[in-house]
Amino acid sequence: MFQFTTSSALLILLGFYGVTFLLTLTIGKKQENADGYMTANGSVGFGMSAASMTATWIWAASFYAAASSGYKYGLSGAIHYGFWGALMILFIYPFGRRFRKLAPNAHTLAEIMHARHGSSSQMVLAGSNIVGSVISLMVNFTAAGALVDILSPLSFVQGVMIAGFGVLTYTLWSGFRASVFTDFAQLVAMILAAVIIIPMIFFQLGGPTLFEEGMPNLTLEQQDFFSTTAILEQGAPYFVAVLAYAIGNQTIAQRLFAVREDLIKPSFITATIGYGSIVIGLGMLGLLALFAGVTPIDGDLNNLIPQMAATYLPPVMVGVLFIMVIGSLSSTADSDLSALSAIIMTDVYGKHITKNNPDPLKMLWVGRLTMVVAALLGVVFASLKLDILAMLIFVGALWGSIVFPVIVSLYWNRVTNAAFTTSVAVSFVLFLVVRFDLLPIEGAIAMFFELFAAVGGGVVLGLMAFGFFGRMAGLIIGLITAVVLVFFTVGFLREYTVLLSSLTAYGASAVVCTIMTLLSKAPDFDFNSIDQRVIEFHKEEA
Amino acid sequence: MSTFGLTVYIMIWPVLSALVLITLCTALVVDIRNAKKEGKSLV
């Protein structure tokens, strides 16, 4: 298999990060302001916003996982990764418009929760955002290490360190503004690579004749576009998990607060199509590998894309793929650094340490210091080669527990802080019980969780319907879905632990939050007060 | 799915990606012009 020499690999990496750094110099200001550093003052245009949203949502794992899915599940595999991921960008935008309307000057979603409920709800959300972003950083640096390791003589740890240092270098000074600005160039590189690489590999493998010759390599299940296995093992759990990512991920929320308010809808729709086409397209490389009878090196599906590229593409195009993957992981990693700095700046320094009266200059340096610490943590954790899949599931569940309480808190004026925090805590504990088999999932216990899972399914579809069609549609679709799902989950879902645990998180949080809210005697909340409590941190110069 | 159908199924994604790229680049040009006109930074 093709490998770069050490010097050419270093040249590509240094060239990539060097050019990116030079790009950020064109927007750098000697005196950055705190709001610009966190959300670019909420005035980013359509092109930049849509590109940044797409680039952030696509990380290195998107390519590898989509291709793995295509290889494992056949015809529908890549769709079951990319389509649901794309749909989640679309799903968040109606809620995003509500968030912006309530708090036009917000920097983080946790900040809005602070204004709505107080410290404990804020810290639940901020804490889960921090854990999620550190894990995401680690995953992306890990992907850099793995790619460098497979395509060059450089070691895994060297790849991790170069990526960590490179991303930090160009993000540190201008923060979110640098992240958004470089996202555009990184996305262009990704799209160009996808547009060239997919057809090249397809025709290298024989073009349409590949399908006639390779069809026997697919099982009947893999040939079925509506494969139940693909839906239950890949599509449904991912659909549920990504829904949580869309709400719980500060990188997405940050772009929501950055885009000009009238451009939220077109930006999100374009990002949906962009994400879907790039990720599903690269996922098709896994399907092509299946047709061609390719066996992944060491049996590791993550090797599929580099392996296909190194086997079927000329060295120049392997270099293009190298840049594409480094671009995708860097665009997500810089977003995670910006997200983490915004959370520490706003939710820790701004709200807790200075009680809403921060020193803007000190605040900026808090953000920069956060980036340095976060990048170091990401590099150290990545070097330890931790099991990232288990961590992703863990964070996905944490976010699954907060989706319903967060959304409902911003529409229903009776939800209380106690209902929010208790529902998150209870549902998270129940998730842990199922996911890690802390109790035997059988008999009445299994039925207990399957009922919650049915409710969870209703919550997922109900929320989606609510976002687009309003309260009544949400309630009706949610209720019908939950009732119908009871017949499909009870006695069946216990075999699919991942899906059962994720849906339990949604269902339990919704049930507990709703019951506690209905029983509460607290006065109704005035949503207008959120705007007064969520403030800008810089003063416009006269 | 027929051979032609499968070919379209594979090739539609790079085509869609290219269309998104054109949309984004056009939008960026508009963004740059607007930013210049208003004397503001692009981000």
From TrEMBL, chain A:
It is found in: Cell membrane. The keyword Transmembrane helix applies. It is a multi-pass membrane protein. The chain crosses the membrane at residues 6-25, 46-67, 73-93, 123-148, 154-173, 185-205, 225-247, 268-292, 312-330, 363-382, 388-412, 419-438, 444-466, 473-493, 499-519. CDD domains: SLC5sbd_DUR3. Keywords: Cell membrane, Ion transport, Membrane, Sodium, Sodium transport, Symport, Transmembrane, Transmembrane helix, Transport. Coiled coil: none annotated. Its main location: membrane. It catalyses: L-proline(in) + Na(+)(in) = L-proline(out) + Na(+)(out). Belongs to the sodium:solute symporter (SSF) (TC 2.A.21) family. This is Sodium:solute symporter family protein. It comes from Denitrificimonas halotolerans. The lineage of its organism: Bacteria, Pseudomonadati, Pseudomonadota, Gammaproteobacteria, Pseudomonadales.
TrEMBL record, chain B:
The lineage of its organism: Bacteria, Pseudomonadati, Pseudomonadota, Gammaproteobacteria, Pseudomonadales. InterPro entries: Trnsprt_adja_ssu-like. This is Transporter small subunit. Keywords: Membrane, Transmembrane, Transmembrane helix. It comes from Denitrificimonas halotolerans. NCBIfam families: trnsprt_adja_43. The chain crosses the membrane at residues 6-30.
